[in-house]
Structures are given as structure tokens and as C-alpha cells.
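pinned: reference chain
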Amino acid sequence: MQIKKLLGNSMWMTLEKVINMGVNLLVTIWLARWLGPEEFGSLSFVLAIVLMVGPVSALGINAIITRELTEQPEREGIIMASAALLRSSGALLGVIAVVGWAMFVPNSLTTDELVVLIGLSAINSLHALQLVEFKFIADSKSHSIAKLRSSVTIVAALIKLFAAFYWQDMT
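pinned: its C-alpha cells
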């Protein structure tokens, strides 16, 4: 029975990764063709800056959270609250770092790019609150997380497309 549950969880997680990679690939190809080299390059530059800071908010504690929730389920509230505080602090530091970099590096970004950079940094910092997934993983309920992540990827793809329309209007 345990092997069947593990295989089911693995299947859901693999399916989620395939869906996410496929959606992201299609959106990236479409954005590159629609925006053209210059605008897509600017958008990619801003996204690269934002995504470089993403790991700061996670602080490398994802596996630790899952392990602790599995080994000490009675301390779930304390573990989740501590993780939320740590990850939120890391996310805030990440946003400050991105904004600080953008403000102190002369002529690195246009005003429009700076606005998009700050907005995307703030949105990206919400990943710090992505703690509920560790509870589901600890409880071997990957199907719920896979469905949620795929839904989030699709919504994020739609937001990227909307941002591209907005981006093109700015230039």
C-alpha cells in the first residue's frame, strides 16, 4: 500500500512539472515572438534580476520544513509560524536588495523597467508564504499540491501575457 501511495505521489509531481514546463515554454516562445528582440530582452533582464533574489526568500529551508513537519507533527503550528517569519524576512530583504540595486546602479534601468522590477519583486516575495505545500508534502498528498501549482503556473502565464501587453504599450 505504501509503494502505491509513493508511486501516485511521484506521478502527480512529475505531471505537474511537465505541465509547468510546457506552459512556460509556450508562453516564453510567444512572448519572444510577440515582443521582438529589444522588448523581450528588456523584459528578460528585469525578470532575471527578480528571479536571482528568489532563493533568498526560501533561505534553503524547504526540505527542513518538510522533515520537521513529518517528524514532529505535534509542533506544526510553531514550525509553520517560524518558517513564515523566516521566509517573509528573507523576501523583504530580497525586495530591498533588488530596489537598492536598481536605485544605486546609474542608468541600468529605464523608469518603466524600474516600475516593473519593483512590482515583480513584490509579487515574487509572495513565494515566502508558500508554506502550506510543505504540510501537504509531509502528509503525502502531492496531488493537491500538483493541481495547485499547475493552476498557479497557468495564472502566472496569463499575468505574464498581460504584462507583455502592458510592456509593449509602455515602449
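why pinned: The chain is about 85% helix and 0% strand. The radius of gyration is 19 Å.
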